[in-house]
Amino acid sequence: MMWTTLLLWLGALLSVSYAQLSETEGTGGEEEAVELFTTPRAKMAAATSDFGYNLFRALAGRDPKANVFLAPISISAVLTQLSMGASPDRSERWLYRALRYHTLQDPQLHDTLRDLLASLRAPGKGISIAARIYLARRLRLKPEYFGVVEKQYGVRPKALMGGAKDVNEINDWVKQQTGGKVDRFMSKPLGRNSGVVPLGAAYFKGKWITRFSQSGLMEDFQLDGEVPARIPMMQQDNYPVKMGVDPDLGCTIAQIQMQDDVSMFVFLPDDVTQNMTLVEESLTAEFVQDLSMTLHPVHVALTLPVLKFSYSTDLLPLLSDLGLAEFLADTDLTKITAQTVKLGSLNHKVVMEMAPEGTQYASSSQVHAPLSYRVDRPFLFLVRDEASGALLFIGRVVNPRKLRI
Questions:
Q1: Same domain (yes/no): 240, 373
Q2: What is the 3-state secondary structure (H, E, C) of the chain?
Q3: How many domains does the chain fold into?
Q4: Which of 147, 130, 197 is nearest to 345 (CA)?
Q5: Residue 177 in domain
Q6: Antiparallel, parallel or unpaired: β 226-246 and 214-223
Q7: CB–CB of 41/387 below 8 Å?
Q8: How far is it, in rounded angstroms, from Cα 268 to Cα 298?
Q9: Each residue's pLDDT tens digit in the chain (405 positions)?
Q10: What CATH number is attached to the domain comprising 221?
Q11: Of 297, 289, 310, 286, whose CA–CA distance to 241 is shortest?
């Protein structure tokens, strides 16, 4: 009875907040956005996040029954490097619109992004980012572009020689940038027609503030229409979270605090289902910022999967869904080369670990938590930098059996 009462109260609290937000959007959404994101860095973080949510929706929609993962900030970083070589009147404008920069009105856009990336790379946040442009040497490249990108972002675009040596060069660089955690980024040579090859990679292992006392116990993870999967879980009673229920989305949402002002949001559907379209479509920087201010602090008996996985894909086919069809058809990179050029791929790889370690123990003095939050069925999660609001990582776990490291 106590569990039901509290959960309904949390749901009512969250629903009221969403209704208030909807009313504000209906009468002056632009004003609300200004109130939420007031500094250049916060606005930049919101733009990179909204780009990330759009890219995630495109990726998730490609196969609704698949596990999908994304570190959007690495793709924002590399496409921004690419924009520095684009013609201002055409290709740069298209890229800025897809990256959501057209909303910023920031004359120091590149400085703002550089400072944001530097803050996100702080060691305690647990994320390593690799983002770089590779270019075919045959393009008669303009050296000015190399210097401009290196001066602004601290990474120099690289000319490719062709063949297996390029694969080794790329793999070694990505591995070095991610502390050895993202290995074998590429497994086969680039295609002969690969002129421009942006790539983004990331590794994430955030540390919880509150540790889990039990870990590794094999338990059932419910699957939609299949026999449950046996996977390792981590569990802790009296775990501090912020939580609420969204009846419209049909899910319970928990925000779990991590070290260095990072947190994880978990969206757990009410039913065992692979269909998370409603949740995926709701995600925006503004929506998640509102959640962070609305979810209610509680203590729960928390159970999470112990996940270690890697995921790689070519994101290039998805760019058309983000409004870049014209850019891909007529890629004008006049600051890089005077020749006609095409993007060969947009390779992306992420590696993530969810482990039980933490710096603090859960309180043992409290009464046993009346609420239980058990993530034992398909779910969606995202990792956010609370200081800036930037989306670091987002994923959908449909079937842990198909995860690989």
A1: yes
A2: CHHHHHHHHHHHHHHHHHHHHHHHHHHHHHHHHHHHCCCHHHHHHHHHHHHHHHHHHHHHHHCCCCCEEECHHHHHHHHHHHHCCCCCCCHHHHHHHHCCHHHCCCCCHHHHHHHHHHHHCCHHHCEEEEEEEEEEHHHCCCHHHHHHHHHHHCCCCEEECCCHHHHHHHHHHHHHHCCCCCCCCCCCCCCCCCCEEEEEEEEECCCEEECCCEEEEEEEEEECCEEEEEEEEEEEEEEEEEEEEECCCCEEEEEEEECCCEEEEEEEECCCCCCCHHHHHHCCHHHHHHHHHHCEEEEEEEEEECCEEEEEEECHHHHHHHCCHHHHHCCCCCCCCCCCCCECCCEEEEEEECCCCEEECCCCCCCCCCEEEECCCCEEEEEEECCCCCEEEEEEECCHHHCEC
A3: 2
A4: 197
A5: yes
A6: antiparallel
A7: no
A8: 17
A9: 333 333 444 544 444 333 333 333 333 344 344 457 889 999 999 999 999 999 999 999 999 889 999 999 999 999 999 999 999 989 999 999 999 999 998 899 999 999 999 999 998 899 999 999 999 888 899 999 999 999 999 999 999 887 778 899 999 999 999 999 999 999 887 766 678 999 999 999 988 999 898 888 899 999 999 999 999 999 999 999 999 999 999 999 999 999 999 999 999 999 999 999 999 999 999 999 999 999 999 999 999 999 899 999 999 999 999 999 999 999 999 999 999 899 999 999 999 998 777 666 666 655 555 789 999 999 999 999 999 999 999 999 999 988 876
A10: 2.30.39.10
A11: 297
Which residue range is the domain that position 387 belongs to? 2-36+207-307+355-402
Residue 92 lies in a domain: yes
Check if the beta carbon of residue 390 is closer than 8 Å to that of residue 384.
yes
Residue 236 CB partners (closer than 8 Å, separation 6+): 210, 211, 212, 213, 214, 301, 302, 362
Same-domain pairing of 90 and 194: yes
